[in-house]
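Q: What structure does this chain adopt?
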Amino acid sequence: MDWDNVRVFLAVARAGQFVAAAKRLRLDHATVSRRIAALEASLGARLFDRRTTGAKLTAAGERFLSAAEQMESAFLHAQSELGDKDVEMTGSVRIGAPDGFSTYYLAHVFGDFLARHPGVLIQLVPIPQVIPLARREVDIVVVLDKPEAGRFFARKLTDYSLGVYASRDYLAKHGAPKDVAALASRRLIGHVEEHAFSAALDYVRELFGGAPTAFECASVVTQIEALRAGLGLGVVHDYIAHRFDDLTRVLPERRAERSYWIVTHEDTRGLGRIRAAHEHLVACVERDRKMFT
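A:
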């Protein structure tokens, strides 16, 4: 069985689309289709249902996915153990994380890492969940909840705190609320409940004392921009708010605390570039721990 065909199969299974898999593999669509056809012919089974919306695994494809991932794990282990340093430190490391953490922290701490390892490509994607890690769609993931099952290696990165903030312009026009009860008469900014990826995101309800929100954003970055535009009061991570001189904390007694966990897959965590990126991120957060709390 041709390993390159299996590698293409895994890319399509994870992307759910031939075109997206082709882009990630840096192949053309025709090559991806041809390799999948060759793999299906060698197995004597159809692995995907081709649809206008993408490619869905058939029952046979689901069964083969498990075997393909075992092959991938064996290949990665062999590469890690037998490859020299240059091979290990070449290629991409895809990191999934909440958009606020990616935008206001991760984007600022990889400069020296890339200088030391010019052959490594760092990719940040807004996927703060463990499921894509199990499917190998990401190599490292930063999550709010420690995974309780699966072949993962998890460690706490740091605790972090959140508070209620408003822009200086908003406070100049409307004044600061005197207590949590006063929030019921203010315009409040929150997140879209259906897009909440973790129960840990209930800090908005917690800090607002159950007062209703009037403007909601799925993205932390958009929430902050709405806050800075004077739209209302919002909950912000303290380490993010400190980046903006125009944001002021109100109701200082209202405080929430959450945690970031960094997670890698047991099968790939020993691969040189993944291990190096993991260690770099852990070291950076340890250095900046006071910033988060």
